[in-house]
Specification:
The complex is a heterodimer of chains A (about 120) and B (about 110). Chain A is about 0% helix and about 55% strand. Chain A is mainly β and about 120 residues long. In chain A, strands 2, 4, 5, 6, 9, 12 and 13 form a 7-stranded mixed sheet that branches. In chain A, strands 1-3-8-7 form a 4-stranded antiparallel sheet, with no helix packed on it. In chain B, strands 2, 4, 5, 9, 10 and 11 form a 6-stranded mixed sheet that branches. Chain B has a 5-stranded antiparallel sheet with strand order 1-3-8-7-6, with no helix packed on it. Chain B is built from no helices and 11 strands. Chain B is globular and about 40 Å long. Classes of the chains: A mainly beta (about 120), B mainly beta (about 110).
């Protein structure tokens, strides 16, 4: 089944403790992206990747890191989480037409709480 | 910003009625897409309409695009309780490598 798999689904952590949210897709998509969703603010893009070893900042990259060492994986790293990073996070992937993403397949989400 | 804005923010209808949601955006686009999100879950891609298309159908969904007004509408016909969800439009621009999502319309279909 074509899918984007995120883990974990739920995570409660303490301020400053490094964490990684994993994302993997099995559709051979070039484009992958991370979003956070907050009430009243909608979906905001954190980072995206056009291909292996090619990553770029989205609209809210502060406090996050990503890497794209393999085409299928795009982990999101929070080096020193803070309470304002409490949010619902989504990974998504897409084929590219030229340089434009065509249509997203989303993961099921990771609900992160930083206390 | 190219971000789309949906209207209305919330819509409540009876089962069997039609639901219409609108999306406006600011700059020229390559394509516009509609997504559905059930509470707390991942978004699901519904339909994509290219900038050179004016109308598209998929099952009970009908999407229109008016590039002169920079707006799109999503019509769900004969709505069902299972259509209860939030609906988002997303736009991409030519040779631009980002999606921009609107703030969403929350649809409630009462049985």
């Amino acid at each position: 089944e074509a899918q984007v798999t995120q883990n974990p689904r739920y995570l409660i952590t303490v301020t400053g403790k490094k964490l990684t949210v994993t994302c993997s897709q099995n559709m051979n998509h070039e484009y992958m992206s991370w979003y956070r969703q907050d009430p009243g603010l909608g979906l905001r893009q954190i980072y995206y990747s056009m291909n292996v070893e090619v990553t770029d900042k989205g609209d809210v990259p502060e406090g996050y890191k990503v890497s794209r060492k393999e085409k299928r994986n795009f982990p999101l790293i929070l080096e020193s989480p803070s309470p304002n990073q409490t949010s619902l996070y989504f990974c998504a992937s897409s084929l590219l037409t030229g340089r434009t993403p065509y249509g997203y397949t989303f993961g099921s989400g990771t609900r992160l709480t930083v206390v | 910003s190219q971000q789309g804005e949906e209207d209305p923010q919330a819509l409540s209808i009876q089962e069997g009625e039609n639901a219409t949601m609108n999306c406006s955006y600011k700059t020229s686009i390559n394509n516009l897409q509609w997504y559905r999100q059930n509470s707390g879950r991942g978004l699901v891609h519904l339909i994509l309409i290219r900038s050179n298309e004016r109308e598209k159908h998929s099952g009970r969904l009908r999407v229109t695009l008016d590039t002169s007004k920079k707006s799109s509408s999503l019509l769900i016909t004969a709505s069902r309780a299972a259509d209860t969800a939030s609906y988002f439009c997303a736009t991409t621009a030519q040779n631009f490598n980002k999606f921009y999502f609107g703030s969403g319309t929350k649809l409630n279909v009462k049985p």
